[in-house]
Specification:
The structure is a single chain. By secondary structure, the protein is α/β, with parallel strands linked by helices. It has one domain: CNF1/YfiH-like putative cysteine hydrolases, CATH 3.60.140. 22% of the residues lie in helices and 22% in strands. The chain is globular, with a radius of gyration of 16 Å.
């Protein structure tokens, strides 16, 4: 996308998140190396963590469409330790403020409003999509930043296939299928949606938590999506 750089790691870069040990030095080093290779400042980056395992055990936490605005004081947060924003998306209005999202078997989405200079990095997992998370991301930007849905652009990461990861609560539709439906319903234009056709459950270059649980992958891990607005 013009004026926005979007990068996604692969399994060769190593896992970018350890759901059982968030301060694992190996994970931190993987992040540092990947970001350095993309010429992105580790200390300026802010990480968001949907933390699905923990949130699923908290009965009162049923909101999977939680969005947080970040500023300069949040740069570096969550990169070295577990002091991280637990949310479903981060939003910045600042050039040069990278946003990072670890993801495996969910859709990572990068929204960009060129008119108002807004960047949103969002986690669209099963729980979020069941609550119309794709639509609510667009509605949030429209309500809080006067974004025109028809002018918004979005880039979508690889995600699991419909065959192996249907969303039962949504008529067994696939994650990308539901994501497209919600974005278009919110007023986005199809030509402004850039989609990756890669299936994480089939392509070994990307981590898949569901395939790991089935015993089809040797390593549990997450790849990283990072996006930053340029000058």
């Amino acid at each position: 996308m013009t004026n926005v750089s979007v990068f996604i790691s692969t399994t060769k870069d190593g896992s970018m998140y350890d759901r059982h040990a968030p301060t694992n030095p190996r994970i931190i080093n993987n992040r540092k190396k990947f970001l350095k290779d993309q010429d992105i400042s580790f200390s300026h980056t802010t990480r968001v963590n949907p933390d699905m395992l923990e949130r699923a055990t908290v009965e009162f936490d049923k909101d999977y469409c939680r969005y947080i605005e970040v500023s300069d004081v949040d740069q570096g947060k969550g990169m070295n330790d577990g002091n991280v924003f637990v949310a479903d998306a981060l939003i910045t209005t600042k050039t040069g403020h990278p946003l990072m999202l670890p993801v495996a078997d969910c859709v990572g989405a990068v929204f960009y409003d060129s008119e108002h200079h807004i960047l949103m990095v969002s986690h669209l997992g099963r729980h979020s999509l069941e609550q119309e998370g794709g639509k609510k991301c667009v509605e949030y930007l429209a309500e809080h930043h006067s974004s025109d849905p028809a002018q918004l652009k979005v880039w979508l990461t690889p995600a699991p296939s419909k065959e192996l990861y249907p969303i039962w609560a949504l008529d067994n539709k696939g994650m990308k299928e539901v994501t497209f439906e919600q974005l278009l319903e919110a007023g986005m234009l199809k030509e402004n949606i850039t989609d990756s056709p890669i299936d994480t459950d089939k392509d070994p270059n990307y981590f898949s938590y569901s395939e790991f649980l089935k015993g089809n992958r040797d390593e549990d891990g997450d790849h990283m999506i990072v996006a930053v607005m340029n000058d």
